[in-house]
């Protein structure tokens, strides 16, 4: 089961309901128009099959403001990310779409800024489950 700090005493057993609660709390704190906040949503998952660790899900870098985001949204998000990933105890999981050249990964670039020897960051490719990512057979020309 799971519990949120902002919903004291309520146990969530349906993880679809957990997802909805995260969206609802995000909208409550940031507004429903793609705002951001450095106020964390604290979720605790209880299971005999999970490690005791703290996971911080940070926003991806936004290049162009949308909704009511401020003009300097990219700088704000970068500052927020750096606040967390520069901690010595942090293990960085830099998520990059699988169809992106890793040399163009903003996530890996930020990770390298705080760990220039490349000892800490762990890269993770994402997009294999997205419908727009399809592997096609080479043509016989």
The counted number of beta strands is 4
What Rg is obtained from the alpha carbons, in whole angstroms?
Answer: 18 Å
Domain count = 2
Helical residues, percent: 25-40%
Mean pLDDT: 82
Numbering strands along the chain, what is their spatial order in the largest sheet?
1-2
Which structural category fits the helices and strands?
Answer: alpha+beta
Quaternary structure: single chain
Query: What is the N-to-C order of secondary-structure elements (H for helix, E for strand)?
Result: EHEHEHE
Uncertain residue segments: 133-137
Per DSSP, the total helix count is 3
Gap between N and C termini: 55 Å
InterPro entries: Dynamin (IPR022812), Dynamin_GTPase (IPR001401), Dynamin_N (IPR045063), G_DYNAMIN_dom (IPR030381), P-loop_NTPase (IPR027417)
Organism: Asbolus verrucosus (Desert ironclad beetle)
Protein name: Dynamin N domain containing protein
GO cellular component, one term: presynapse
Summarize the structure in short.
It holds the Pfam family Dynamin_N. Keywords: GTP-binding, Nucleotide-binding. This protein is α+β, with helices and mostly antiparallel strands and 141 residues long.
What features would you describe in this structure?
InterPro entries: Dynamin, Dynamin_GTPase, Dynamin_N, G_DYNAMIN_dom, P-loop_NTPase. Residues 1-141 form the Dynamin-type G domain. Keywords: GTP-binding, Nucleotide-binding. GO terms for molecular function: GTP binding; GTPase activity; microtubule binding. The protein is built from three helices and four strands; from the N terminus they run βαβαβαβ. With 141 residues, the protein is α+β, with helices and mostly antiparallel strands. The chain has two domains: 1-55, no CATH class; 59-133, no CATH class. The strands form two sheets. A two-stranded antiparallel ribbon has the order 1-2. A two-stranded parallel sheet has the order 3-4.
């Amino acid at each position: 089961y799971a519990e949120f700090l902002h919903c004291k005493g309520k146990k969530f057993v349906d993880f679809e309901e957990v997802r909805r609660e995260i969206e609802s709390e995000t909208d409550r704190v940031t507004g429903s128009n793609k705002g951001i906040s450095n106020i964390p949503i604290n979720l605790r998952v209880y299971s005999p099959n999970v490690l005791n660790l703290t996971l911080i899900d940070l926003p991806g870098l936004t290049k162009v403001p949308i909704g009511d985001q401020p003009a300097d949204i990219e700088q704000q998000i970068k500052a927020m990310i750096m606040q967390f990933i520069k901690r010595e105890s942090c293990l960085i999981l830099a998520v990059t779409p699988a169809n992106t050249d890793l040399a163009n990964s903003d996530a890996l670039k930020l990770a390298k800024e705080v760990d220039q020897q490349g000892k800490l960051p762990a890269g993770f490719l994402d997009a294999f489950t997205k419908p727009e990512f399809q592997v096609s057979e080479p043509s016989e020309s």
